[in-house]
């Protein structure tokens, strides 16, 4: 019996199992929670799926609504201290995962994370493009038939996280994609993935183009304070599509912090490592992610140049990017 099967046996008979997506969940987090919940239900384990923060992408709401994904905000779940939590696409202890009421017993993730000691189960695969691929492999190992709705959600998660298998993917992701493609609703997958913007968000693109600066192939811009967190990533992807830009660093000023989103197509610029160097090693904030895609937060109280904080932060990043 493999370790995941052992986890399933330990979960049987427990009062309540909670599957927690990371805060401000993306498509991969929501899809992976949904798919894991279905898998566990086939073994007689009832779950609830929760998140913290907000879901601010119209395409995620569309996926949830059309597929009937029963994920709710943690404040609405009535969590109890005796609840057992499985965290997917994140890890308690990371800044984007709220430590909810209950006991965290398992982590399933494709990011560079350090799980707490004493977990029942941990499956961390940073070389995978999406947590969706890890969940797919559980279905294969256990011989569980995957419904079209689950495959559709997982393909959306995989497509978004890897930009349609063009960044940060491995052979396992390709295998998972081929499987999803055979049984998922491709019209719905394409509809969700393509229609990712609301008309009210177009002014942010106008602002980006007005404020954009490009130096040594690195694009930087300070976005308005009300720019949605997950939109920063879409704006970074938009910039990376420009042939003269291979690294993007976008910032959004908040009252006490600066939210950052980083993208890289330059092999020698690992933006997860860059965020670590600029934010964590200097103790002005935190950040992490993948070589090609990362995020971070600057604590303004830690900066000596708070009057022109964003420009100072951009300068720190530029100093650490090789010519």
From TrEMBL:
Alphabetical list of InterPro entries matching this protein: DDH_dom, DHH_sf, Oligoribo/pAp-PDE_c-di-AMP_PDE
Domain named DDH: which ranges?
16-157
The record, for PANTHER family, names: BIFUNCTIONAL OLIGORIBONUCLEASE AND PAP PHOSPHATASE NRNA (PTHR47618)
What organism does this protein naturally occur in?
uncultured Woeseiaceae bacterium
Give TM segment ranges: none
For this entry, the protein name equals DHH
């Amino acid at each position: 019996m493999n370790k995941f099967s052992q986890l399933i046996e330990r979960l049987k008979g427990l009062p309540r199992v909670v599957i927690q997506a990371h805060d401000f969940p993306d498509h991969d987090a929501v899809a992976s929670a949904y798919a894991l919940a279905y898998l566990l239900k086939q073994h007689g384990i009832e779950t609830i799926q929760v998140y913290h923060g907000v879901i601010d992408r119209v395409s995620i709401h569309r996926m949830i609504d059309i597929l009937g994904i029963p994920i709710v905000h943690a404040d609405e779940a009535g969590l109890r201290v005796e609840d057992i939590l499985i965290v997917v696409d994140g890890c308690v202890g990371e800044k984007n995962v709220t430590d909810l009421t209950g006991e965290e017993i398992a982590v399933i993730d494709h990011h560079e994370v350090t799980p707490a000691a004493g977990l029942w189960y941990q499956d961390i695969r940073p070389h995978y493009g999406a947590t969706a691929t890890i969940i797919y492999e559980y279905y294969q190992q256990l011989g569980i038939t995957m419904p079209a709705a689950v495959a559709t959600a997982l393909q959306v998660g995989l497509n978004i996280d890897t930009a349609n298998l063009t960044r940060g993917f491995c052979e396992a992701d390709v295998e998972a994609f081929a499987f999803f493609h055979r049984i998922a609703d491709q019209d719905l997958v394409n509809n969700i993935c393509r229609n990712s913007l609301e008309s009210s968000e177009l002014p942010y693109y106008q602002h980006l183009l007005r404020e954009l600066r490009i130096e040594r192939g690195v694009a930087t811009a300070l976005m308005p304070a009300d720019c949605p967190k997950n939109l920063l990533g879409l704006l970074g992807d938009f910039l990376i599509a420009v042939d003269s830009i291979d690294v993007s660093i976008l910032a959004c000023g908040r009252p006490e912090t600066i939210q950052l989103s980083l993208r890289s197509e330059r092999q020698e610029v690992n933006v997860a490592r860059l965020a670590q160097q600029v934010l964590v090693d200097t103790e002005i904030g935190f950040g992490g992610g993948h070589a090609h895609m990362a995020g971070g937060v600057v604590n303004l109280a830690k900066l000596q140049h708070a009057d022109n904080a964003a420009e100072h932060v951009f300068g720190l990043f530029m100093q650490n990017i090789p010519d």
